[in-house]
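Table S2 (text version). Query chain:
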Amino acid sequence: MSSPAAATGTAGEAAVLAVADLRVDIALRHSTVHAVDGISFDLAPGERLGLVGESGCGKSTLGLALAGLLPSTARVSGSIRLGGKELVGAAERELRRIRGRDVGVVFQDPMTSLNPTKRIGVQVGEALRLHDGATAGEARDRAREMLELVGLPRPGEQLDRYPHELSGGMRQRVVIACALICRPTLLVADEPTTALDVTIQSQILDLFDRLRDELGMAILLVTHDMGVVAGHTDRILVMYGGREAELGPTRAVFAQPRHRYSEGLLASVIRIGAPRGTPLASIGGRPPDLAAPPAGCGFAARCAHADAACRDVAPQARVDVAPQARVDVAPQARVDVAPQARVDVAPQARVDVAHRWRCHHPASYAGDAPLVRDASSTLVEP
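Corresponding structure-token output:
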């Protein structure tokens, strides 16, 4: 076992993004919503982190906090360091210089993300003109290059079109081009495939992988779909009730989930090849009220293994680190977990690959013995 502090994922000096004890409270008229409660993680150059959980668990709020896009009623504490620069408490003027240049954001609905009154070329090139002082002609040329990079057919023709003239998949590629035109070091993709059909969804996820390799940027992929993160992330952060439930290498979390909530999410994934008539598992109950979070484990009310301690005492972080585990962050990311966990993502950025969880009764865990799950229980192969 190692300390939780060592388990955030990447060494501070090597991290593009370092988040420590982040808390976001949003004041309402008669209450305060504790949307993000003590989240900590790092992201190294070229690393892909999947942020997963049910609707209302705080995923999108966390993503907006990283980009400085929270409402004025939000109170933020803790630390968000991007490239060594502290963002919590930064002036709005400084945040405007960072958004679009150092942090790109892809929102869930491309139709509401784009201005219906402006042509595509103007919108894609806007950040370049704002941050780099490019002329209209230079911005248009770069916009065409970005549209080509994201795989939009006939990019020169699309520059003069309006958003309503494009399909949903084409609009999402435009939004991605807007986010990447200044070549940010961090891309926050908030449910980028939810409104798309399965075929387009796969194309967009493959596009993220290719752009990560070509541009070397870190990606935070926010989603409620475990199938999305399975083959397109290096690590997974599972959130529940605004808090961290589990953080670890993707393969480790899929093969040996420690938190009972993670286990429930994986059980809800449809098994390919399951016998006809096999019922689909679901997690009963509702997520906790974030305006009045429980004193103990937030998942206790929905967990079949919960006892009095779960309801009364918040579980502390526990960490399992494989001997000689390391992260090397770079393009061509490869994740091999077990028994000597390794995530090869880049040269000269080695850190412990920890599997961290917060649960009084971890799934498939017995003391310090290694976890072994029957092959039939493997739901998705990352």
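Notes on Table S2: DSSP finds twelve helices and 15 strands in the chain. The mean pLDDT is 83.
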